[in-house]
Amino acid sequence: MTKKSVIRIQAAVIKFLTYLTGILYLQFIAIGCSTPASEIKTTSLVSETTNNLTENILPFWESYTPDPNGGFYGTVLNDGTPVPEAPKGCVLNARMLWTFSNAYMHFENEAYQELANRAQEYFLTHFIDEEFGGTYWIVKADGTPLDDQKQCYGIAFAIYGLAAHYQATEKHESLQQAISLYRKLEEKAFDPINGGYIESFTRDWKTPQRYGYDGIGVAAKTMNTHLHLLEVYSQLYKVWPDSGLKSQLKGLVDVFLEKIIDQKRWHQNLFLTREWENLEHIDSYGHDVELSWLLTEAAELIQEETLIKQTKDIALKLVDTQMQEGRNPDGSLLYERRNGEIEGNLSWWPQAESVIAFFNAWQISGDEKYLDAAITTWEWIKDNLVDTENGGWYGGLDSDGQPLIGQPKVSLWKCPYHNSRMAFELLVRTQKPN
Q: β-pairing, 88-89 with 336-338?
């Protein structure tokens, strides 16, 4: 049986389970079941997103991405065809390490453990800079460095993946390397005067590098790197509750509350100078909803009641603003608005982040409109992004509302992280304690 045949069968299973869930829901209604409607909705949502993860997302990455020459392919086309000569990115490989580590931790499937270990071994061998510390940004298909600059964004995801691998497997090598990378960031990238982290450097950490910002000037700091450092330090703190790390995690929360979030507009400033001057007005709806739940997660780890309440209030304000300004009637979320103009197609990852953010807002407030919003967005995802023929998710839709089939399913930035994390988050948030 071919890989495509297997994925088609899995897609059929998903459709059947979705149909069965709908039938059960109608039966509950018909018999006047006393189960609260929100519980029925939640059960259906979690069941469907978990099934999509285990029967569609993970099988695609398991089937099509392992490179016989080591690690994983850097690019795979929409139909699963690999591009063997494509370079391999730090972010993609770190996110794959995180994804399969979590898959093994949740489902105890040995195949996921093997893929997580494969990702860890390749990452430690080819992406870690043993001489200067940190990670390479991109390596060639053969694993040798191609772009050796130090991007804090990439190093952050290396910590993220390695900390998750330790959590799943208890391999101390992963934890020690994650701690080493964390300490290198604190030594080289942390700004003790203005707070936050400098964006990028040369390989030897001597000169800050241009991040690629094409607006007013060079962005010494970016929202995006700080957003992911927030989740990364939260992940590391879960497995290594170090007091210094906790202090830096608290510092990141403060940076968002005081420097990055514009509390007049309830959007984040994306590109900033070292002193936190905003370089351009861009509203990034996906990043804003993503921050909403990552802030509350960090505050709960820090365990300061005042901060927890403050971040929950801010989470609702962020979600309400994005729902009002960036959400389409069909449940999809726009990409961004730059200087008042909508830019970008409907991309895959903001939709996944929306589901988590709306669900988090419902858990905070108890207002069922947020739960309904999460379900509506998930329905849009099923109808528009899930590839039932080849597996996985499309990268988005074009201006005509058609899937971007010409866009690779695997690339430096297209990964199994946002959509798998959506399913993991919903599963964790609804699991009853033993």
A: unpaired
Q: Report which of 195, 191, 159 is spatially closest to residue 177, judged by C-alpha positions.
A: 159
241 vs 130, 171, 232, 244, 356, CA distance in Å? 26, 17, 13, 9, 25
pLDDT: which is higher, 211 or 90: 90
pLDDT in tens, 95-116: 999 999 999 999 999 999 999 9
Between helices 90-107 and 417-430, what is the axis angle to 10°?
Answer: 30
C-alpha dihedral sign at 272, 277, 278, 279:
negative
Question: What pLDDT shows up at residue 32?
Answer: 44
pLDDT over 50 (residue 4): no
Q: How much is the pLDDT for 29?
A: 39
Residue 27, pLDDT > 90, answer: no
Query: What is the strand order of the sheet 145-147 is part of?
Result: 88-89, 138-139, 145-147
Residue 6 has pLDDT above 80, yes or no: no
The pLDDT tens digits of the residues spanning 348-366 come to: 999 999 999 999 999 999 9
Q: Which residue has the tokens 């590098």?
A: 209
Q: What distance in Å separates the CA atoms of residue 133 and residue 372, rounded to the nearest whole number?
A: 46
Residue 57's pLDDT is what?
A: 98
Which amino acid does the sequence have at 323? M
Answer yes or no: is pLDDT of 202 > 60.
yes
pTM of the model: 0.90
User: How far is residue 89's CA from residue 411's CA, in Å, rounded to a whole number?
Assistant: 8
Q: Dig out the tokens for 2 from the structure.
A: 């071919």
* Separation between Cα atoms, residue 262 and residue 406, nearest integer Å: 37
Cα–Cα distance list, 257 to 227, 250, 253, 267, 361 (Å): 12, 11, 6, 11, 18
